[in-house]
Amino acid sequence: MRITKESLLRIARETVSQRIYNRPDFVAVYLTGSLLKDEPLLGNSTDIDLVFVHPFIPSVRREIVPLTPEVHLDIKYNPRSEYEHPRQLRLNPWLGPEMYDPLRLHDGQHFFDFVQAGVRDKFYDPVNACGRAQRNLQHARQMWSDLQLKQDDSPTCMLKYLKSVNHAANAIAVIKDSPMGERRFLAQFPASAEAAGNPALTTDLFGLLGAELADKRELEASLPVWEKDFLQAGKLES
Asked: Which one-letter DSSP state was computed for residue 45?
């Protein structure tokens, strides 16, 4: 199958139609993420980010559905209660930008009219933009403080460190844009640093990720082993 933006959007709509047929009580469904951009593909692969809004708290909050080796569905299930106070969402660094301008795929209860009226009002005012940045910054600082109490080289601590870096970098991104996705994180950050008027932050970010210690030849030599382990991990049952 030739992967195009049009074919991916068709898959998204078909997926929603099938699931709405089986679960007509969904409040709303919307598309977010890279498929809203002009170039959704990265290395000839991509994901289709869908959010299903439940009337109640769902038992499963996230589902990954492989479609082809290059494409998978990344589905989030959010309870309706998370959207009850739209004006407060303006300060949410994740749900706020997500709800500002998604692609509506299902809206049986005028959900978007209600939520977006509050989210979009003064969304980019400095006080709200800084509020979103502060929320991310607080998450980053809390994770960093936790790591000071327990420092080791375990995968758990490493993942927590990377998450703290993610939140810190996204504190810059959400001032004027949406938070950066994991796949395009390093590619997108320089533009966010430029927009914030401090391009030197890009060098700081790469430093936090160990760029000064990286050796290009060693990284290239490790790719085959990394790819083998990555594919193997994808076959493991959760």
From this structure: B
